[in-house]
Structure formats: structure tokens, C-alpha cells
């Protein structure tokens, strides 16, 4: 085969590959839309492989490439065996948060910037809860604090730290869940995941700087109980201000510990 013939053959192969990729992307888009619209609800099975191949006039490799794309996005899982099939999953926030977190890291963003966003949204969420007289949310916040106060009385410092941080996250999630704004709730979950990964990955590098964990835990519980009392009294402005001051103090502590720049990779000692 001549040089020109070889190049032409390679060009045709490249075109064929691009066409297959384009068809796979088109099928992935179609299935993604069907999942989002509820045509294929969570936990349901997609139509069979052969049926979808015939319906969309595609080859088996093209079909499987589309399925791999949606598996990577966390929308599908392929179950093996005689009763298996391709099952629709309910999307979770973790893959999205992971991608956004690494984007933040590549852009050299800081936790201070994350805290700026939280300072704009979370006090507003507190204000909304109180003004809406959302007693279910206030009761959920109080229950969280009862658990957190019990957690900090444990003897094992490692257990205390884990329980305190988990309940701190739960308190914050409850706030944004009842913010009255779905976008605030979703972005709150994403930023929670980003911050949790960052703080876990560099916890060992800063643990020695934490001198009075017990005192900090007590102060944190006390501040959140003050917020709850203000909320129960119907004082939306003061409740929001309590949370604003708490977030500002949290931001200052992060900056004092150093390593404020977002880093989702484990930090060497």
C-alpha cells in the first residue's frame, strides 16, 4: 500500500471512529434526558441492549460506549447474571462535588472564598427558617445539638472529633435544606463535600495546632444553641447574626491553621 493509500485508509478509520463516538454521545444524551424527565425512574431497568441497538440503529460497541459514559456519571449500573440488566441510579452529589473540588484546586481557590459564599447564603437560610416559622427545621436543629452535646462527653478524643464534625455537617445541611431555595441546598451539599475532603486530607498536618478541642467543641455547641433559642423566640435577625458570627470565626480559624488553599489530595507530613 502506498503512502497516500495508507493515509486515506487511516483517514477513513478516523472518520468511522468519530461517527461511532458521535452516535454514542447521541444515545447517551437521549438516555440522560429520559432519566431526567422521569421516563426511566430511579431503580428501573432500561430496555434491553438489542432493543435499544435496533431502535437507534447502532452497533453493540457504540451502545456499550454510551452506557459506559452514563455509568461514569453515576446514572446507570450494569447488573450481571440472568436477572441482570442496566439499572437507573438516583444521582448523588459526590461525583459532581469531586469534579468541582478539583476545578477549585486547579484555579487555586481558597476555603476563604468558599466561606464567603456560605456567609452570603447560610445566614439568609436561618432568616428564612425563622420567618417561615419552620418549627420542624428548628426541632431538627435542636435534636442535632442534643446529639452533639452528648458526643463531646465521650472519653475517646478520636471518636469525639468524628462525631462532632459529622453532627456539625448535619446541622449545616439542615439549615440549607430548609433555606427555601433548591439551588442553595444543592450548592450547600457540594461545598460541604469539598470542604470535608479538604479538611480530612490535611487534618493530620494541623492537628498539633489544635490546643483546646474540648473548649472549642463546647463553644460551638453553645453558639448553635443560642441560634436555636433566638429562632424559637422568632428573632430572625438575631438568629441569622449568630450564625454569621459563627461562620466568620470558623473562617478565621481555618486561615490561622494555614493551608487555606483548597487541596483535595492527601498532604504529606
Automatic annotation (TrEMBL):
Keywords assigned: DNA-binding, Transcription, Transcription regulation
State whether keyword RNA-binding applies: no
PROSITE patterns associated with the record: HTH_GNTR
The residues covered by the HTH gntR-type domain are 21-91
| InterPro entries for this protein | GntR_C, TF_FadR/GntR_C, Tscrpt_reg_HTH_GntR, WH-like_DNA-bd_sf, WH_DNA-bd_sf
Q: Which GO terms describe its molecular function?
A: DNA binding; DNA-binding transcription factor activity
Pfam families, from UniProt? FCD (PF07729), GntR (PF00392)
* Stored CDD domains: WHTH_GntR
Q: What is this protein called?
A: HTH gntR-type domain-containing protein
Q: What is the source species?
A: Haematobacter genomosp. 1
